[in-house]
TrEMBL record:
<dbReference type="InterPro" id="IPR007415">
    <property type="entry name" value="Nitrogenase_MoFe_mat_NifZ"/>
</dbReference>
<comment type="similarity">
    <text>Belongs to the NifZ family.</text>
</comment>
<dbReference type="Pfam" id="PF04319">
    <property type="entry name" value="NifZ"/>
</dbReference>
<keyword id="KW-0535">Nitrogen fixation</keyword>
<dbReference type="GO" id="GO:0009399">
    <property type="term" value="P:nitrogen fixation"/>
</dbReference>
<protein>
    <submittedName>
        <fullName>Nitrogen fixation protein NifZ</fullName>
    </submittedName>
</protein>
Length: 86
């Protein structure tokens, strides 16, 4: 059995979308190919999961009230100064 790849990011972290995140059909309340979050949008990780078959972490990130499933290559920790202090 292959060990699951460790998650790079953790629950509660603020992240930025690196590209426009579009609906691949898995978000039922929006048309396929609708933009769910724009590149540069700031979100917060609300859950960290794992795709067993692909052996990769999957992140649920809340962007502007909408929770979007993301892969590590779609998000990053924002540069200092980009995110207002809480």
């Amino acid at each position: 059995m292959i060990e699951p790849r460790d998650a790079k990011y953790q629950w509660g972290m603020r992240v930025v979308a690196l590209d426009d995140l579009v609906n691949d059909g898995s978000f039922p309340d929006a048309p396929v190919d609708a933009v769910l979050a724009r590149a540069g949008d700031i979100g917060e990780i609300v859950q960290v999961g794992h795709h067993v078959e692909a052996n990769i972490p999957v992140y649920l990130v809340e962007f502007n009230g909408l929770v979007v499933g993301c892969l590590e290559e779609e998000i990053a920790v924002p540069e200092r100064g980009l995110v207002p202090a809480a």
